[in-house]
Amino acid sequence: MNLCIDIGNSFIKYGIFDNDKLVKQNRVKTLLVRDLKSLIAKYNIDKAILSTTRRSLPRFCDYLKRTLRFRVLDHKTDLPFENTYGTKKTLGKDRLAAVAGAQSLFPNKSCLVVDIGTCVTYDLLTKKSIYLGGNIAPGKDLRLRSMHDYTSALALAKPKFTNPLLGKSTNMALQNGAIYGIVFEIEALSARLQREIGKINVILTGGDALKFGELIECKKFVFPNLVLTGLNAILKHNEN
To answer: For 88, which DSSP code?
Structure first.
């Protein structure tokens, strides 16, 4: 069994895989050694991989190093695709894992991976398994917060996904600017890329993927556990 851990800005997500099958997944605020001991014993885990967006590694890494075949995903990790990014050391490891997840689900297909969370990240993998790069934009909460923080009169609006296309009040206008701004950004980028490189699969992941998936009109696939799937694919790739 493989244990895959993704440490994001707000939560720690982990998944346990039996080969390619996700048999357990969870999202927690904290993960302690006693939690890991219980999981390892229950599922007979022998390998683990960790990806983090934070500056320092959690303390439980020392325990995993002593107990399992364990690796931390970094810019030197061998990947199942060619990475042409210019600054590999600064490339978010969750972005790499999401691309690996898309590749494992859609082999030999061009994929635009959109991870919608605190930030919205866009990453393009070609059908020849070449990662070309991507973009980073503010997520919905950052957009709402910035409009409040950097103006003198605009209130801090709460996100809402059920408004009509045009706001009927300033509060609704703020909500729509944040929500539909992301929707149109995804639709426009995917359309432009399709014109430039041909057919692509648009894959949504992240904490807000399901809600945005209901609003986005272009064809898309929604995989909330794409990063965990990609971590497992990278772990399996490095077994060889």
So the answer is: G
CA distance 197 to 49: 33
Say which CATH topology domain 75-240 has. Nucleotidyltransferase; domain 5 (3.30.420)
Round to whole Å and give the CA distance between 230 and 240: 16
Choosing from 94, 115, 123, 208, the catalytic residue is 94
Q: What is the pLDDT along the chain (240 residues), one digit of tens a residue?
A: 999 999 987 789 999 999 999 999 999 988 899 999 999 999 999 999 999 988 888 889 999 999 999 999 999 999 999 999 999 999 999 999 999 999 999 999 999 999 998 899 999 999 999 999 999 999 999 999 999 999 999 999 999 999 999 999 999 999 999 999 999 999 999 999 999 999 999 999 988 899 999 999 998 999 999 999 999 999 999 986
CB 161 within 8 A of CB 210: no
User: How far, CA to CA in Å, does 49 sit from each of 70, 75, 97, 113, 233?
Assistant: 6, 14, 11, 21, 10
Catalytic status, residue 94: yes
pTM recorded for the entire structure: 0.90
| Architecture label for domain 1-72 | 2-Layer Sandwich (3.30)
